[in-house]
Every structure is written in structure tokens, then in C-alpha cells.
Amino acid sequence: MVMEGLQPFSSVTGLVANMDKSHIFMARVDEYAKSQLLLRTRYVHRSFPIRYLVLRT
């Protein structure tokens, strides 16, 4: 998962993700998977402000 991938990077570089500024964008993800991702990552769910990419939520 993303959080597991960031841990070695943080250990080597000393940099950490700012969770207050981190968001997750999802399209065509069922509600259970969405809730699990949000629970595990602690990211805030956001929507794209435009529909240009034709990503349906």
C-alpha cells in the first residue's frame, strides 16, 4: 500500500508526508473499499473540480 511504500522513503530521506495536506481522489471505487482506504491512509477524500478527465465517482 502507499503508506508502506512511503515508510522506507521517509527513513532514508528524513522527509515525511504532511497528512494535513494529503488527499486521495477515487473514481469507480465501491463504498467499502473507499472507507477502508480512508481508514488506513488517514487521507481526506476529495473530488476533482472538473470533469475533463471523465472520471466518474
List the secondary-structure elements in sequence, H or E.
HEHE
Strand line-up in the sheet with most strands:
1-2
What amount of the residues lies in strands? 5-15%
Average pLDDT number? 80
Q: How many beta-strand segments? A: 2
Distance between the termini: 21 Å
The radius of gyration is 13 Å
Low-confidence stretches: none
User: Per the principal axes of the C-alpha atoms, what is the gross shape?
Assistant: elongated
* Largest β-sheet summary: 2 strands, parallel
Note the total helix count: 2
Indicate the percent of residues in helices.
40-55%
Structural category is alpha+beta
Descriptors for this entry?
57 residues, 40% helix
Structural account:
The chain has 57 residues and is an alpha+beta fold. It has a domain at 17-48. It contains 2 helices and 2 strands, in the order αβαβ. It has helices spanning 2-13, 31-41, and strands at 23-25, 44-46. The protein has a two-stranded parallel sheet. Strand 1, helix 2 and strand 2 form a beta-alpha-beta unit. The radius of gyration is 13 Å and the shape is elongated. It starts with a helix and ends in an 11-residue tail after the last strand. The model has no long low-confidence stretch (mean pLDDT 80).
Topology:
Blueprint: H1 2-13, E1 23-25, H2 31-41, E2 44-46
Parallel strand pairs: 1-2
Offer a quick outline of the entry:
This protein has 57 residues and is α+β, with helices and mostly antiparallel strands. The chain has helices spanning 2-13, 31-41, and strands at residues 23-25, 44-46.
